[in-house]
Amino acid sequence: MAASEKARAKAEQAVGKAAQAVGRATGNENLVAKGHAAEVAGNAREAKESLKDTNRP
After folding, report:
1. What is the pLDDT of residue 19?
2. How far is the C-alpha of 26 from the C-alpha of 24, rounded, in Å?
C-alpha cells in the first residue's frame, strides 16, 4: 500500500469518527451520518489498497 494512500485512508477514518462523536454529542443526526459516510469511505480506500498489495507478485 502506498504510504500516501494509507495515510489518506486513516485520515478519512479519523475524520469520520470525530464527526460522528461531535454529531452524537450535539444531537445532530446529519453530522453523524456524514461522519459515518467518511469513515466508510476510508475503510473502502484501505481495503482497495490492501487488495492491490495482495495482487502484486
Report:
1. 97
2. 5
